[in-house]
């Protein structure tokens, strides 16, 4: 059970929504409303209505998420098709039979959500009238408080699943497939007008023949339902038809609507009460028989005095001239009060101001009634008071008769009846509320099921995407294996080639050095290592002319340049040298250009070094 502080915070939140977004939720059933708000707060990770109010103030986009949660837009085409069949087969033909052929037909779909029921009503009317008559005569006003839902309804585009309940022949006639969705045809769509309307705050659509409001009233409390039903009664024409949802009844509002088919929640508007302007007839000319002279004045006085109701007679000058025994006992009138001015008596202003009523009767020359006048004298009593002018003719009034009819017993019975009716109505409303709560829970469960189905479809789609990605990865992996095999094969070939080259270089009689066009060492064979005392790893990538070995490399510069530029003839040069063991000798160096037959530029040069006389 909510604490008083929580109730105050919730009321403050509802007032904030009403002032800032013109959404009045105070008429909604509190338990259902609180449950939906709590769900949104839980999703937003907020505890307490006061904290959520601050969050709404700081986060304007949260309003849309809150309204989507509170306003459960669960609807479909031809929902619970039995009422639509009766509407099509019986109700609409009867409405058309009562109207001239060229008269307009107005319908109202209240709480239309995303428009399915409004378009369902349009299809039913179009089938009854024909498309030409439908376009010329029919206007359907579809209203809701949810702007997002109205935007979807105006687009009139629905998924394949959403139109499954539309019969195939109507689907082909009133929808057209566009970009994977089914759109209502434009010429048919123009007869449906969507707009925002708050059933609690805004004026109803008037002069309607059919009003559809299905499973919307069940979210409101009994007082608000009664207010809305009065507006529906105003909206409909005489004999207009109201279609409600399965969870809604009119058992406590039978004076406004008469059941046409209670099981399917079809009702007919009862006739509007006629309030004619009734004025009581004025007194006929001549004296009142009670004041007419008689040959038996004592009998007349006794008859007046013993009248069963309280009555006094006041003359034209305002003096009380007669009072019945019941009036004397009821108002404490003593014999001395007879003949005194009425204004001097308590009766003149209690239980009601008599002097102004008497003046009104004189001015209007007719009876003035004051009804349900309460008077507390030990116990509470009620009177209907009638003030009638007395006179020979309307222009010669001689006084007034004031009668007090005691209606206390009737009033008590009326109150007792009202209390009994109220208790009965409360019982009916509790039963209806329980039924509506169950229907609301079913709606919420249906909404949850649909959300779970959507989530399941998304998961299935994600799974399919993952399977596709897995297949692509497997394909890529196979390609990588193929590439890897090719690389290994090429690597083996390269190793074989390198081994072959090593064998070639090792088989040559002298030291062999291969340099690139920038004169950096590329190959340094085993004989070169033995001759100059440097390993291959130490010299590869080093500029040949920068090597500090027993060979005068600077003297070889011209030979190398010539070989790189003119590769037709090998260049030979003999220079003095010293090997790694310190032995001096004459070294013959042969420099040959390194170039493939089909290449235009040299890849480098090959230096072959041989010891003379060895």
CATH architecture of the largest domain: 3-Layer(aba) Sandwich
Mean pLDDT: 83
Q: Percentage of helical residues?
A: 40-55%
Number of strands: 20
For the sheet with most strands, the description reads: 7 strands, mixed
Q: What structural category do the secondary elements indicate? A: alpha+beta
Strand order of the largest sheet: 6-2-1-7-8-10-9
Low-confidence stretches: 273-295
CATH topology-level name of the largest domain: Rossmann fold
- Shape label: rod-shaped
Strand content: 15-25%
Number of helices: 18
Distance between the termini: 114 Å
Q: State the name of the first-level CATH class of the largest domain.
A: Alpha Beta
CATH homologous superfamily title of the largest domain:
Vaccinia Virus protein VP39
Provide the domain count: 5
- Rounded to an integer in angstroms, the radius of gyration calculated over CA atoms is 54 Å
List its salient traits.
single chain; 614 residues; Rossmann fold; Beta-Lactamase; seven-stranded mixed beta sheet; 18 helices
Q: How is the secondary structure organized here?
A:
Layout: H1 4-21, H2 30-44, H3 49-58, H4 62-70, H5 81-98, E1 105-110, H6 116-129, H7 131-137, E2 138-144, H8 147-155, E3 157-158, H9 168-174, E4 175-178, E5 181-184, H10 186-189, E6 192-196, E7 208-213, H11 222-235, E8 236-244, E9 257-261, E10 266-269, H12 297-305, E11 310-315, E12 320-323, H13 325-331, H14 354-364, E13 368-377, E14 379-391, E15 397-406, H15 408-507, E16 511-515, E17 521-524, H16 526-532, H17 536-539, H18 557-565, E18 571-578, E19 584-594, E20 604-611
